[in-house]
Task: inverse folding
């Protein structure tokens, strides 16, 4: 399997730069994982030390770099806003099965798209912009036929983001050891969004 270069993994949108998460992003992990409001629909609030351990896990990349976590950066200010990811979706496990993020192969489980933003970045469309860009990457750079997503049942804001990205609701499904609203996008769905023209998929990205 061809390993993509750092340049191949650097993604942009109109307002954002997305780069693979690295050791320099431990501060962002602390900002996100120690904030009770950010973690309300995601999991227990972490200590600084545990957040930094999570940051180390987020440096892992699989499938030649195609599976992993990207740090979302505001182009204008260079502020780190959060993360967006393509990672294996756990079924009964409470956390990402990081052991499936292996350099030379794709995960055995479904691959999910997801994101976490700092509170200061909420409500400005960044989640939709970043998720759309990573979906484009998935269908341009991987052979995966579908990408899935889940949210907490009460997380209506994230459900709205996924619908805006063109993902289709699939009903409740098992993930992270709970029953969660499920979403998916197939390669065919993505192609249909492209045919829809402006407003269908994001424009002006490289």
Result:
């Amino acid at each position: 399997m061809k390993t993509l270069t750092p340049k191949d993994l650097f993604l942009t949108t109109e307002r954002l730069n997305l780069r693979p998460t690295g050791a320099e992003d431990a501060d962002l992990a602390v900002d996100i994982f120690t904030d009770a409001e950010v973690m309300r629909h995601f999991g227990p609030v972490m200590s600084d030390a545990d957040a930094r351990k999570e940051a180390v896990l987020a440096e892992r990349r699989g499938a030649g770099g195609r599976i992993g976590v990207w740090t979302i950066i505001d182009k204008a200010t260079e502020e780190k806003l959060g993360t967006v990811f393509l990672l294996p979706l756990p079924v009964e496990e409470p956390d990402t099965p990081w052991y499936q993020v292996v350099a030379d192969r794709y995960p055995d489980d479904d691959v999910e798209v997801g994101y976490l933003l700092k509170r200061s970045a909420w409500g400005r469309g960044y989640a939709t912009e970043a998720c759309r860009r990573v979906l484009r990457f998935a269908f341009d750079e991987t052979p995966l036929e579908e990408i899935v997503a889940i949210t907490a049942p009460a997380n209506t804001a994230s459900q709205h983001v996924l619908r805006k990205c063109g993902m289709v609701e699939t009903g409740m499904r098992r993930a992270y050891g709970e029953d969660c609203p499920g979403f998916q996008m197939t390669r065919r769905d993505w192609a249909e969004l492209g045919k829809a023209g402006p407003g269908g998929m994001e424009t002006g990205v490289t």
Observations:
- Strands lie at 11-12, 16-20, 68-74, 80-88, 111-117, 146-150, 168-175, 178-186.
- Residues 92 and 178 are 7 Å apart (CA to CA).
- Residues 202-206 have pLDDT under 50 and may be disordered.
